Amino acid sequence: SSSYLNKALQASAQVLRHGYSLSVFPEGGRSFDGHLMEFKKGVGILAIETGIAVVPVRIEGAFDALPRTAVWPRPRKIIVTFGRPLLASDVDFSKKPEDMDEYQYFANLLRERVRDLQKADGLKTDVGKIT
Fold this sequence. Notes:
This protein is α+β, with helices and mostly antiparallel strands and 131 residues long. Helix content is 34%, strand content 13%. It has a 3-stranded antiparallel β-sheet with strand order 1-2-3.
């Protein structure tokens, strides 16, 4: 329900305001086919309302290691790529479509950043195989 979502967002914002890091998966679920899904606007709410920087992260190989239908992970190579942080204060919200709120617009820009990490250089970390 929406009250659970509001409580989760409030708790997340409190964690961020106290200076801690928070990992979120803005797709809101695991992919059925390994492709990047649409991002939910919760990440935009957190970024805009707290003013924190969001670091786009691409996790390559996770779907092969643990597909949605799998019970156990399979040994596969996983590569984690970190992109440049995105701040709401750096976003030109005047470019957003009229029928979209700022939170979703931020989430969509973040998704583009994550998608572009497969083409860009970013900081890559090979975390090895799941065993």
